[in-house]
Design brief:
This protein is mostly helical and 591 residues long. It contains 36 helices and 2 strands. The radius of gyration is 32 Å and the shape is elongated.
């Protein structure tokens, strides 16, 4: 039962319990244990068990079912070692047709199509027969290697090798088109098999093509396939929706994400039962962009479902008890089955609720302007959910609603409760903005110093830093910051765009030190592309004031920076702006 469910960890615990009771596992038990670990994506543990058997259970190590399980694990972890292991076992005559299946996978993972074709011929010579798994693995390997036409021909004529067309082989072959993004080929083959051959294809086949279309960025094809599933009475499952939602979100089709979610929200309860945190954040992000008001209730609903009303604290992602029937599809037997009896009380189906989920909720509240609710959500959280990301999101919500003093106080309080190692440039940048806008220039200066020391000054923090230093008359520090940003821009290709607020602050200051590098450094930090987009929205009078400063610098003999200043303002001019500037007295000096 644990093998079928892929419950590798529980299988290990049961095996340890057997050993504690003095029960030695026989060959069949070892095979089941290895298969449970492989299905549970724990191949390294399979290889460890295989290694532990060396020298004391050679009877088990010689069993072909055991070696096949080990070969399967190796193909996932170390395909080159798997190939060598296969040839060694073959030389000892310890392989069967299933061994070739895993060898196909190993060669496929190595990208060695020649090896795949060589094994195919070897099977024919040795008289080994294909089954649906081995043949599907072969065709998938061919498709992965770009031999899509050969793979599709092999699928069309599978009866020639004794494998009737079946959903398993079809799904494996179609998913093979993912690596080379051959979405149109996969879609055409599915329709050919369904419409021309009259095959009844199941949801796994459709999901394989959906996965290929998603990988190729074909969101329209994904939506059309969902429609075709409905037309052919194929029940849409969670994987179908999750893949399509991801395709839409990756293409920035947020309206379609919200529409699809709403259309299928109550689909047999599948979204309510199986929505994971990846898909949830994807949907929540779309709601935030499309309908922030609806995002609040949508996120709250799923937070309550994930948490079951009581969030447990722990490191990293927080497992929260929340029974989700249907997650483990193999647990369909009666409550008295051995697998269920052992599993009961040992492990529950869980959803992962982490700080990123609450960050999405707080962000949605911020977009709605509900800063009081954002603060309430944060206050209800305990570590590790109350971390720097949720605190920063709340500070951002406060800034959005112009609650500058509250945002500053929140971040100051966080410095006492959050480990210093977790404080990042985002939090410091928000602190700088909050303190500056609250006119707490001393605190803003502390944040700016930290940002400069850490090299974390981005566009927003740099702009507020410029304004802060200018207001304080710290021209030398301002000049140093500007030149430092210019250096970073040249070394790392980072673009900094000085905001209109910064330009107005500079332009209206009358206490410039005319031989300072600050004005020239400011313009130098603007590239032509960046400055054009910002300066064309600046009032003509402001540009005129910049011009006047440039003229004063020129008169003072600071010709290099005067030239830079004139070039910077010129890059943002157009004919209309220049015409309006001619009305200003200072423009007469420019001539």
């Amino acid at each position: 039962g644990l093998e079928k469910a892929g419950e590798g960890e529980l299988a290990l615990r049961l095996h340890a319990h057997m050993q504690a009771q003095g029960l030695e596992a026989d060959t069949a038990t070892i095979v089941r244990l290895l298969e449970a670990l492989n299905k549970g994506r724990m191949p390294e543990r399979s290889l460890k068990i295989w290694s532990d058997l060396e020298g004391r259970r050679e009877d088990v190590r010689r069993n072909v079912n055991v070696t096949n399980a080990v070969l399967s694990a190796m193909a996932a972890v170390d395909p080159l070692a798997a190939v060598e292991f296969f040839h060694d076992m073959r030389d000892r005559d310890q392989v069967d047709d299933r061994s070739y299946t895993y060898a196909f996978t190993a060669y496929d993972n190595l990208g060695d199509i020649t090896g795949v074709q060589r094994l195919w011929e070897e099977m024919r010579v040795r008289g080994l027969t294909f089954d649906r798994v081995s043949y599907g693995s072969l065709l998938r390997a061919l498709a992965h290697a770009g031999e899509v036409k050969q793979a599709m021909e092999g699928l069309r004529h599978s009866e020639n090798v004794g494998v009737p067309l079946n959903n398993y082989t079809i799904a494996l072959t179609l998913i093979g088109c993912k690596r080379t993004r051959q979405w149109s080929t996969a879609l055409s083959m599915l329709r050919e098999l369904r419409d021309e051959r009259g095959l009844s294809l199941n949801v796994v086949c459709y999901n394989s093509v959906l996965t290929v279309c998603n990988a190729a960025g074909q969101w329209r094809a994904c939506l059309r396939l969902l429609e075709e599933m409905g037309e052919h009475q194929v029940e849409i499952d969670y994987t179908s929706l999750r893949v399509t939602l991801n395709a839409l979100a990756s293409a920035g089709r947020y309206n379609e994400v919200v529409s699809l979610y709403r259309r299928h929200e109550e689909l047999d309860g599948v979204l309510a039962r199986k929505l994971d945190t990846f898909a949830f954040r994807l949907i929540a992000n779309a709601f935030i962009k499309v309908d922030p008001v609806a995002a609040v209730s949508m996120i709250k609903k799923h937070v309550q479902r994930f948490s079951g009303g009581a969030v447990r604290s722990g490191a990293g992602d927080v497992p929260v008890g929340s029974s989700q029937p249907g997650r483990h599809q193999y647990h369909r037997s009666s409550a008295g089955s051995p697998a269920r009896q052992f599993r009961r009380g040992q492990e529950q189906s869980t959803a992962l609720v982490d700080s990123r989920l609450y960050k999405s909720l707080i962000t949605a509240l911020g977009h709605k302007g509900e800063w009081e609710q954002a603060v309430q959500v944060l206050q209800a959280l305990e570590p590790p959910l109350r971390d720097i990301s949720t605190i920063s999101a709340t500070a951002s919500a406060l800034l959005r609603s112009e609650q500058y003093s509250r945002a500053r106080d929140l971040l100051l309080e966080a410095e006492e409760t959050v480990p210093g190692a977790q404080f990042d440039g985002v939090a410091d940048s928000l602190g700088l903005q909050a303190a500056y806008m609250a006119e707490d220039y001393a605190q803003a200066g502390l944040y700016l110093d930290r940002l400069i020391q850490a090299g974390n000054h981005g566009n927003s923090s740099a702009n507020f830093g410029f304004c802060l230093l200018a207001k304080q008359g710290k021209w030398q520090e301002l000049s140093t910051l500007l030149l430092d940003i210019s250096r970073l821009q040249e070394e790392h290709g980072r673009r900094y765009i000085v905001s209109r607020t910064t330009l107005e602050t500079f332009a209206n200051l009358t206490s410039w030190t005319l031989d300072s590098e600050a004005p020239g450094g400011m313009v130098k930090s603007l590239n032509a592309e960046g400055s054009e987009g910002e300066m064309e929205h600046v009032e003509p009078a402001v540009l005129a004031n910049i011009m006047e400063t440039v003229c004063k610098m020129s008169e003072a003999g600071n010709l290099e920076n005067a030239t830079l200043g004139f070039a910077g303002t010129q890059s943002g001019m157009n004919s209309q702006t220049f015409a309006e500037l001619t009305k200003e007295k200072s423009v007469q000096q420019v001539g």
